[in-house]
Amino acid sequence: MNEVPFAGFPPGAQATPIPSLFFTRLLPRLTDPVELALALYIFYLLHRKKGYPRFLSRDELAAEGDLALFLERTCGDATDPAGERRAALERGLAALVGAGFLLTVLAEGPDGGQEVYFLNAAADRRAAERFRRGELKIGPWRPLPEAEPVEPSRSIYALYEENIGPLTPLVADELREAEELYPQEWLRPAFERAATLNKRNWRYVAAILRRWAAEGPDYAQAGGDTERGARHPGQLSGRYRGLVRR
Q1: Separation of alpha carbons 215 and 244, rounded Å
Q2: Chain centroid offset of residue 85 CA
Q3: CATH class for the region spanning 20-132
Q4: What is the per-residue pLDDT across 68-101, written as a single tens digit (0 to 9) for each?
């Protein structure tokens, strides 16, 4: 099969945060290329998902064309490619659950019960437990958003690295939550204000965002409305809600 060589990563290409412990604690446990590829792809898909909680179903994974192509190639000359891909996906998921990378929950949805997968991280463990207790229900299934490249100015991770420094897994989790919580238009001005005041740390940027959530943004944006995209504090969710001054 003749393929066009990879042309390299363009400027501003999106990044997928992966905790360092994956490489030191989980990678040595994975014994099959499908397990490794599936784990990396799950990080990628969960990073693309919006909202709370974040989980994946087997059907969502099976519908991913790039992942399906990889599975098809690892299956070799299979007489039943679709069946082999499905079997390889199920084996990989079972192995990742067994290795402690994923948590599995039988969640009740509008079309009956369906097994869904959570990353074995603190917030996701809490969400999985709420599913088990029946406190969370699955809403209508929505397709994953297209993985379109974004400009670095619209990526909170790029803003952090430009204005503060190298990204760490713990900070990446907080950035992901903040990106969902606050209007996109606030992010760059908040980082730029912190940098101008020589307060190059995430705690200071987060404090600016919390103040804007409580009082409205006070930055000036040429050609734009400073209130554009603003949310009332009551619309904020997650742990930041309790930090907003009323």
Answers
A1: 9
A2: 25
A3: mainly alpha
A4: 989 988 876 667 788 888 999 999 999 999 999 9
